[in-house]
Each structure stands twice: as structure tokens, then as C-alpha cells.
Amino acid sequence: MQIHSIRPTVLCFSGLDPSGGAGIQADIESIGASGAHAAVACTALTVQSSQKVFGFEAVDSALLAAQAKAVLDDFPVRAIKSGMMGTVDNIHALAHLFESGAIATGTPYVLDPVLVANAGGALGDPKTLAKAFDKLLPYAALITPNTHEIRALSGCQDLHDAAKSLNRRGAKAVLVKTSHDFQSGDIEQFLYIDEQITHTSVVPRLAGEFHGSGCSLASHIAGRLAMGDDLISAITATDAWIHQALIHADRPHSDPEAQLIPNRFI
Ligand code: PLP
Q1: Pick from 34, 68, 41, 97: nearest CA to 228
Q2: pTM score, two decimals?
Q3: What is d(CA 113, CA 146) in angstroms, rounded to the nearest whole number?
Q4: Angle at CA 116, nearest 5°, toward 111 and 122?
Q5: What is the DSSP string of 96-126?
Q6: Could you give the CA distance from residue 43 to residue 114 in angstroms, rounded to a whole number?
Q7: I want to staple 212 with a disulfide (CB 3.0 to 4.6 A). Which of 21, 29, 146, 266 is the partner?
Q8: pLDDT digits (tens, 9 = 90+) for 166-195
Q9: CB of 81 closer than 6 angstroms to any ligand 1 atom
């Protein structure tokens, strides 16, 4: 038997989705696929199927911070990823880990500002969460909002104005997709750094709705950053990987409208 050192670790802050499509499971599978190791501080337990959120209970913020500290004291944490935070207190607890130096300065942080589930259903109070995410923007190497989230966070309708506004408020890079704005055509993706478009890509639109695609995207990028990629290489590698995960997605039951579960073992 050969014992190796642990792979570069991504510490995720995310919620449990019992369907396995999104949240913690999406993070673990995506980060595993990126080559990195996933450690998770659990922010909330949700009650949901692949199609609908029925409710959730957030973890107490002191317990969240204690989970994170146990990992930070023990593992070579090379990137941070956050998804569903559930409460403003949990967002403040993560901000405090950055402010206090418990998370080493310069550790790449991918912020997926989850407000509501794709299929509908609250994952916290969207208005107060959107405001609280402001505290995390200055620590973010990258923020990956969907179109609803970027408008809620910035207050701007135009996606380009919205991205620039998040840059001004501290997010180093903003990845914007046009996927929710148009129902047809390819999906355009822009990366804003310093209020300028630094990278663009076009990804083919796939039929259907996917449960956990946002979590998978953000956590795979965090994994590639932990593995040493620069930001654009991490995004390019993730685009290619996620396309495969989505074209091989699984249908949980026979309803043709059902949200599909990305296949992250491809
Ligand atoms: N995190 C959790 C725990 C969730 O339950 C969900 C959606 O249901 C999300 C994040 C966001 O998922 P998506 O990647 O589909 O936006």
C-alpha cells in the first residue's frame, strides 16, 4: 500500500440536497472530477426532490464556523467555494473567517450566490441574502451568479452593467451567462475583470433544465484553481467538463418536464 499526501483541498460551504443533484453532493463529485479533494462545512439541510424545494433548516452559524475551522486547521486548503448559505448569520460567519485570517489571505474563493433553487423554492430570504453577499464580494476571486442572482445582487437589469457593478464592489472576476435570458440560441458567457470583458465563450444550449448545474460549475472551477490553474484555464477546463456532464445527464423519472441530474462521473 502506498500512502500519498492529500490532494489540494477545496473547502466548500454548502447545503445538503437529499436528491443528490445540487449542493454538497454536486460539490464533492465536481471537485473530485477536477482532481482536487472536497471538504465540506454544511450550511443547511434542505428537504427537496429533484424538482422542488419543500423546506430547509439552516445550521447555526457557530456550528458552521466550527466545522470550517476543524478543516482549516488540518488540511492544505487551496481554494474556498460557497453555495447555499441559508442565513445572513452564516454569510457573516464566512466573512469573519476571511477577516480574521482563519482562511489564509489570497486563497482563491469562488462565490456562487445561491438565492433560490432553479426549480423554484426558497433557499433563504432572497432580499436579505442578496444584501449580505456584499460582505463576501471583496474576498471573491470569482463570482458565478445566474441571471436572476446577478440582477438581485447588483440592482441592474443589464447584465453587463450588473457585472461591472459587482467588480466595483470588490469581486475580482464575474462570470455571466445569458442562459436564463433567452429560451433559444447558444449561451454566451462573459468574464468581467476590472469592469472589462476579459474572456468570452459560447456554449451550445442543451434541451432541458438541469438540477445542480450552477453548483457543479462553481465547484469544478474552484477545484481547478486549487490544482493550480489560472482563472481562464480553470473556466475553460470546466466548460468542457460540464458540457459532458450535462449531455450525459440522467432523468430521475418519466416526466418529460423533469429536471435532469448532471452525470458527473463521465
Ligand atoms: N445548493 C443547494 C443545497 C440546493 O438545494 C440548490 C438547488 O436546489 C442549489 C444549491 C442551487 O442549485 P443550482 O446549481 O441548480 O442552481
Answers
A1: 34
A2: 0.97
A3: 9
A4: 130
A5: HHHHTTSSPTT--EEE----B-TTS-BSS-H
A6: 12
A7: 21
A8: 999 999 999 998 765 556 678 899 999 999
A9: no
